[in-house]
Amino acid sequence: MKNLSLRWSDLDPNFHLRHSSYYDLAAQERIEILHQYGITIGLLQETHIGPVLFKEQCEFRREIHLNSKVHIVTKLLRMRKDGSRWVIRHEFLSDENQLHATIQVEGSWIDTLRRKIARPVPEAILSGLERFPKTEDFEYL
Fold first, then answer.
1. What is the DSSP letter of 43?
2. Where are the domains of the chain?
3. Quick one: 2-140 is in which CATH superfamily?
4. What pLDDT is attached to residue 1?
5. Which contiguous run of DSSP H or E holds residue 131?
6. Does the record's keyword annotation contain Hydrolase (predicted)?
7. In which band, very low, low, confident or very high, does the pLDDT at 35 lie, cut at 50, 70 and 90?
């Protein structure tokens, strides 16, 4: 769980969180969690592997304003046993645990030199994904 610090530039003309800010905040949180579990930018550069998204979808429930106390919870929902494909869910929650939005992303790993899906996934990446927080209904694909 990460408490969000919202900026003026995150707002839209209606003075609530701009739709694209949700996606930016979720992407930053994913990278920070990957780093926390050993999947660092350095490792990705060294192995010439990077995350790639196939689908990104947001369901908006409640507005978030500049002074809102909101946190994001990010968990792995599904994954292939070899770590080559995965689904991550982000939930934007108030301090009272009211759901403001859910973002779900489906992705894989790309070989940044060959520009093709990376197979097999390096052990360090698979190990990090195995430690990534998981939803209660997590399942292997």
1. H
2. 2-140
3. Hotdog Thioesterase (3.10.129.10)
4. 78
5. helix 123-131
6. yes
7. very high
N-terminal to C-terminal alpha carbon distance within the chain: 25
**Distance between CA atoms of residues 34 and 26, nearest Å:** 12
Helix (H) or strand (E) holding 60: strand 49-60
Distances (CA, A) of 97 to 40, 81, 101, 129: 30, 32, 11, 26
- The model's pLDDT over 86-127, given as tens digits with 9 standing for 90+, comes to 999 999 999 999 999 999 999 999 999 999 999 888 999 999
CA distance 138 to 65: 31
Positive or negative, the Cα torsion across 64, 103, 110, 38? positive
Tokens of 24: 């930016």
- 104 in Cβ contact with 128 (< 8 Å): no
For residue 31, which of 100, 113, 90 has the smallest C-alpha distance? 90
Give the C-alpha separation, 43 to 129, whole Å: 14
Strands 70-79 and 99-111: unpaired
Q: What is the pTM of this model?
A: 0.93
Q: What is the CA radius of gyration of the chain?
A: 16
